[in-house]
Amino acid sequence: MMFKTAITLLLLSIVMLSAGTANAAVKIVVHGSNSVSSITKAKAADLFLKRVTRWDNGHAVTPVDLSDKNPVRGAFSKELLGKEVAWVKSYWQKMIFSGRATPPVELSTDNEVLEFVRNNADAVGYVSEGATLPGGVRAVSVSE
Amino acid sequence: MQRTRVFLFTIIAAFAASTAFAQTADSKIDIHGFGGWAYGKTDGHKFGLADEDGEYDNAEFALNVAAKPVDKLSVVAQMRFESGKDDQQVELDYAFAEWAFNDAARVRVGRVKHPFGIYGEVFDVGTVRPFYSLPASLYGANGFTARAYNGAGVTGTVPLGAWSVQYDVYGGQIEGDFETPGLLSTAKEYFTAPSITFGYRVEDSFGGRLNITSPVEGLTFGVSSYSGQSETDISSVDPAKRDVYAGHVDYTLDRFAIRSEVGHLKNGDDFNVDSGYIETSYRLDDHWQLAARWDQLDVTLPGTNLSKLPKIFPQLLDHREAALGLNYWFSPNMVVRGSFHRIDGNRFAFPDTSGEVVSALTTGELDRKTNMIVIGAQFSF
Q1: Which of A76, A143, B78, B82 is the most exposed place for a label (fewest CB within 10 A)?
Q2: Residue B189 — very low, low, confident or very high, per pLDDT cuts 50/70/90?
Q3: Helix, strand or coil for residue B202?
């Protein structure tokens, strides 16, 4: 009886679900030598969450993140990963302490990310849509 | 004391290394850690980290070091220091090397975190769960899962369209602790200590886990299983074949999560265990979170005539627990939490002293009910 009551209460709590989406503007950037010109949202999530760790040419992907103090991080998480930053942090804790993966390097600003990508041929990062891209870095289009 | 020195040395060495390497843009070494402290108090029996007097000495800290010396090679190790009422211990949680042929095939060798269920690989990490402690039914010291296996395994992730399958297969030795009411220890020998803890090993074990990510956002499910020859540190316990089967389902969104696991353990002809729990949590805002859990376990002893054993014996074989929790998250890396637990049964809730055990045997009465509160904090970095 107690078990049934517990299950009923727990299932009822499902109605408390909340949802929301941000419509932020970010762009994904790669090194100028990278042949990738477009990726899907799902592929972007796989790359930044390290579920896919190789480019099609076999090179190891080097994702780079923005610090969670940067508002672009929150926008990227919601728009591309479909999750809040807190969820992503929790995901990385599970990956770290299970010994499966370590999170991407976190940098503070758009310029730091762009500099990192410019200096790493296999890097992938994201910056605010208004950021000016230096030579050697280009944006890739993102599709559903 | 020696272990404490070793642990402190490890911490100092790791942090010294971290000043040079950790989490910089050029990093090939990552340093992370987690820990926590809790106060627990019950209204009678000892249960988990709590007793009737109130227990403050529940602290732990772990340090995780991951290195990537070359492209496809990863080396990971985790040391854990735990302080409890009765002892302090330093333990190598795991240390293994992994060679990644590709995302679908990674070979692991060493002492590897046990891939079991939802929490088997993040056993002590408080910031990835809604309560201070994991459910006792599947994650207590009762033989379902240990912290690691010693041996070799293969793991990988295989995308299948909108689905994704993560698998693990492994072989070797599973080593862990088993805690049981003294009266329940063995069929051949009784102990009047409230409980005893002894080491066990599942030798020549072979097992695996499948974790399937569905196209439904946040929904994952899977199965875990292993089999091997179980041996213990107690000479009067005969080796027996142990078979373990478990299933899990997890539905986690940004604010809401609900998950459940069930498991069956068969230890030769000696005993069977059926376990399961369901837990849910809801984030009211960025900080406050509510949590609830139902946890239950039943032990059966084939071939044992319970009517010939002490009257209190049957209630040592089951566990029912309802828990409610309230958490305040300062950030995803630090949480302060409190919870209330109502326990029925004495599989995990033991009398505090040998005198109480003798009294229970004499009178044939042992209180089935235990109430517990836990207040604590957990962090990770």
Answers
A1: A143
A2: low
A3: strand
Using CB atoms, pick whichever of A3, A60, A116 lies closest to residue B294: A3
Q: Contact at 8 Å (CB) between A126 and A114?
A: no
pLDDT per residue as tens digits for the range B100-109: 999 999 999 9
Amino acid B227: pLDDT: 97
Domains in chain A with CATH codes: 24-143 (3.40.190.10)
Size of interface A-B (CB pairs under 8 A): 112
Residue in chain A nearest B106 by alpha carbon? A100
Backbone angles phi, psi at B368, to 5 degrees: -75, -25
Summarize chain B as % helix, strand, coil (round to 5).
Answer: 15, 60, 30
Helix %, strand %, coil % of chain A (to 5): 40, 20, 40
Question: What are A's interface residues with B at a Cβ cutoff of 8 A?
Answer: 2-3, 6-7, 9-10, 13-14, 16-19, 46, 51-54, 60, 64, 82-87, 89-90, 93-94, 96-100, 102, 105-107, 116
- B365 and chain A in contact, CB less than 8 A: no
Q: What confidence tens digit (pLDDT) does each residue in B19-75 have?
A: 444 454 445 899 999 999 999 999 999 999 999 999 999 999 999 999 999 989 999
- In angstroms, the Cα distances linking A135 to A31, A32, B59 are 9, 8, 52
Residue B255: list chain A partners with CB under 8 A: 17-18
B292 touches A: beta carbon within 8 Å:
yes
At B188, is the pLDDT very low, low, confident or very high (cuts 50, 70, 90)?
A: low
Mean pLDDT is lowest, of B47-61, B183-197, B243-257, B307-321, for B183-197
Closest Cβ opposite residue A10 in set B98, B102, B278:
B278
